[in-house]
Every structure is written in C-alpha cells, then in structure tokens.
Amino acid sequence: MYDLIDRPVRDLPPFERLVLLATRRWTHAMALAGSAPLYIGGSAFSDVMTRLHDASKMILVIRAPCHVAVDDAEAIIVNLWRLVRDGHTMQAQRIAADLVGDASDGMIRAIRRAIPAL
Fold first, then answer.
1. What is the model's pTM?
2. 87 Rama sector, left if φ>0, alpha if ψ -120 to 50, beta otherwise
3. What does the pLDDT look like over 31-75, one tens digit per residue?
4. Which structural domain, as residue segments, surrounds residue 16?
5. Residue 32 lies in a domain
6. pLDDT tens for residues 70-102?
7. DSSP secondary structure letter of residue 69
8. Long-range CB contacts (within 8 A, 24+) of 89-98
9. How many other C-beta atoms are found inside a 10 Å radius of the C-beta of residue 83?
10. Is 85 inside any structural domain?
C-alpha cells in the first residue's frame, strides 16, 4: 500500500491505475448525479463501490479523476483490490474488515467477481 501513496497516477501499473480511475469516476458520478455509471467495470464494479459506500466505517476521501497523485484512502482501496487479485485473502480480509466491518466477506466476494470485468 505504501508504494502507492503520493505516487503519480501515470506511473501506476495498468491494473492499479484502472482500479484507481474507475473508483474516482464512480465516486465523482455519485457526487454529481447521485448515481454511478455502470460502464465502469460493469455492475460488478458498481456492487463493490456500493458496498464500500454503504458500509464504510470511516470517511474515505476519493479525489476527482483529474488529480495526478494517489491519496492515502485511495491507496488502501487499490491495495485491497491488488491483494484480492493476487490471492492474499487473509490480508485482504483484514483490510476489508477495517473498511466495512461485518460486510467484509461480501466485499471480498464482490471484488473477486469484479476483477475479470475490469
């Protein structure tokens, strides 16, 4: 996770950049229109973000898509996706539990479903 904080978006590996930008676009659409576009990773991605939005135990600041560096909360979210992708289930579970409490199992399952759609 620490390798992502304050890193320029353009320098991120493709998967991490895709997750970050999709997260930013989803959040930006929710802030502006009150609904998220489904084209960003399809409904599976939207399911992950909705779970994060509805069950978050803390305030997560997600920057607008135009920002050039990764913020702390964004690094946590991108790292969660990366851990799930790489099969580090126990670490991902701990991070998800910190983010969404009892909804962490559903969050991990939703991320697994969303990864192929990205």
1. 0.92
2. left
3. 888 777 666 656 889 899 999 999 999 899 999 999 999 999 999
4. 9-117
5. yes
6. 999 999 999 999 999 999 999 999 999 999 999
7. B
8. 98/57
9. 21
10. yes
